[in-house]
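hi! just following up on the protien thing from before. the input was this:
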Amino acid sequence: MQALKFEKTGSLDGLSLVNVDRPTLRPGEALVRVRAAGINGSDAAGILGMLPFVTTPRIPGRDFSGEVIEALDPSGASSQEWIGAEVWGTGSERGFTSDGSFSQYLAVPIAVLSRKPTSLDHSKAGSMTLPWLCAWITVDTLANVKEGDNVIIIGARGGIGSAAAQLCKDRGARIFGTYSSLAKVTPPSYVTPIELGSKNTIREAIAKAGLQNKIDVLLDCAGYDQPFDDAIFTMTPDGTGRVVVMAAHAKDGQFPINLRTFYTKALTLKGMSSSILGQLEVKKVLDDLAKKIDSGLLEGPKEVDEIDMRNMDNVKGALQVVLTRASHVRSVIVP
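and the predicted 3d structure came back as:
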């Protein structure tokens, strides 16, 4: 089969199209014909050597959508239950310490298979699994957003931020979302947009809404110090305020925060990592998302850029784009 592979980290030029053997199934595994594999910043970061836990040689890729073409039950006998099923997936060590989804075929444990939304094609389904898993962990597991909560999302246009906004809406929260510019953006009706400008843009917008000291949750999907500090100024001082961060824009991962504001409001800070859920927990999340997307409660992406796996210039270009957040349209590798 064909796959994208790198022998050592350090440069996107180290990624190449190769011919490798199809995965050999072990008992309890299914073979998935990959139809689309989402491109994430962590894929590019792994290739570049920014993630020290990535082992080589490695086929990158965490997200996938495709069809099951073969399966073995726990005894090693052929199983027909999942044959032909259209599935999607993400997470685990895939693409980091085991070979990932930037390939024509992928071995997946049967126990964690999740049927993709029937209302989405493979490209759209394959583009959204990791961002939505991160959003779910952020909103549900870490921030525990509840009905009636007032929420600020910094970076509401991005993949995780926009998904988090939908999940907060589903839970009955009131949502404020920041945008670097509203010139070419139509925010969803359930998000009160805040266009970033002056140093105090966020607190001014929240005060205008009559909610100063009444923000319950801050979700930082961008990782810049100035809007972060501006946002925590608006939060409740009663000890229930929850802050979740999942990005740091600076290369060294650092930025200053106003600790006096933070401790006087008795805020709680948590970091988001997609690896905190096990594979069975990820399956439950994806199963729930699929039901809500097919029922119309949640909405998948409207557009996706498809990148032919054989066009290495386009593949490397797409990895560079996602790393620099130069586009708000998700891309997928099409094997």
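DSSP finds eight helices and 15 strands in the chain.
The mean pLDDT is 95.
cheers
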